[in-house]
Design brief:
The protein has two helices and 24 strands. The protein has one domain: Neuraminidase, CATH 2.120.10.30.
Length: about 325
């Protein structure tokens, strides 16, 4: 009888431990923001994902072609990206569950810099299919293509406002905002303040961008009316591609602060700079990953961390 009771108690502990471990796995995967970026650490450009502490690195693409410029659907289940696998810059969409990609654009021109709308309905991108670079948008199934810009010499790097109502983009004519249907385009920052790679703040009130305003490429922020311009980084190296964190309190970007391109994180007051990647390869183009994406396939390092947290929670 005692032996039977011992088996029951032991089995119950194992079962509870399983549920506790699963709960910790879900909590860890869902409460730690993650970023994706492109890196040449495998010999060519591929897309990787890691958390904002530079941990739990995973490789998302592995194809002979170059793969870069990731952008995620709001639910974190799909990723738009650029690939040269068919000999041309085209946009593809990867299903992160099945690991299957489908080609979104089909044109001899260059299609680049996809940006998924916050409501999941559209993917904006830049293309030179009409000779000059302009901003387009298309539905994720490849239908309903719209050309949104028809002016200036070059329009590129689209980014959506959090409410889906506007798109900011870079241009030789300055930094612009337009309605999501391409109407009412207006300039925010004039030359020589040519804002590259704009990024909208989570509250929709500010836009971050990189520019060589003072002779060196640094990261700045401004209000959406073009006012209140502030310099965030102060370093002789090139600081580019800023992306606001989901809580609005920090930003990630790529830089050559340590001689080669790496991903960095910095608080919005310009302090607490952290280097997130430490590799001789070129790590560039970070983007925020919607919560929960990392829970698809935790790494061995993640599992070890989770087990340590599990033991700590039991000890408490």
């Amino acid at each position: 009888m005692k032996r039977h009771l011992t088996y029951i108690v032991f089995g119950t502990i194992l079962l509870l431990g399983h549920f506790v471990f699963s709960g910790n796995l879900y909590v860890y995967a869902s409460d730690v923001p993650s970023i994706a970026f492109s890196s040449t650490r495998g010999g060519k450009d591929d897309i990787y994902i890691m958390d904002i502490n530079g941990k739990n690195l995973q490789k998302l693409t592995d194809h002979p072609g170059y793969e870069f410029d990731p952008s995620f659907s709001p639910d974190g289940q799909q990723m738009a990206y650029v690939s040269t696998r068919d000999g041309n810059l085209e946009i593809y969409v990867l299903n992160l569950t099945t690991k299957v990609s489908h080609r979104l654009t089909h044109h001899p021109g260059h299609d680049d810099n996809p940006a998924w709308s916050p409501d999941g309905r559209w993917i904006a991108f830049e293309s030179n299919r009409e000779e000059t670079y302009d901003i387009y948008k298309i539905e994720p199934d490849g239908t309903n293509l719209h050309r949104l810009t028809h002016e200036w010499d070059k329009n590129y790097n689209p980014t959506w406002s959090p409410d889906n109502q506007f798109i900011a983009f870079s241009s030789k004519g300055g930094t612009h905002i337009m309605d999501a249907d391409g109407g009412k385009s207006r300039r925010l920052a004039n030359p020589p303040l040519l804002g590259n790679t704009p990024s909208w703040s989570p509250d929709g009130k500010q836009i971050a961008f990189s520019t060589a305003l003072l002779g060196n490429t640094d990261i700045y922020t401004m209000d959406t009316d073009g006012g209140n311009i502030k310099r965030l980084t102060h370093h002789p190296a090139v600081d580019e591609s800023p992306v606001w964190g989901p809580n609005g309190q920090w930003m990630v970007f790529h830089s050559r602060w340590e001689e080669n391109y790496d991903i960095y994180r910095i608080d919005m007051d310009g302090t607490n700079r952290r280097r997130l990647t430490h590799h001789l390869a070129r790590d560039v183009g970070p983007t925020w990953v919607p919560t929960g994406t990392l829970s698809v396939a935790p790494t061995a390092e993640t599992q070890t961390t989770l087990w340590g947290r599990l033991k700590q929670s039991i000890g408490d």
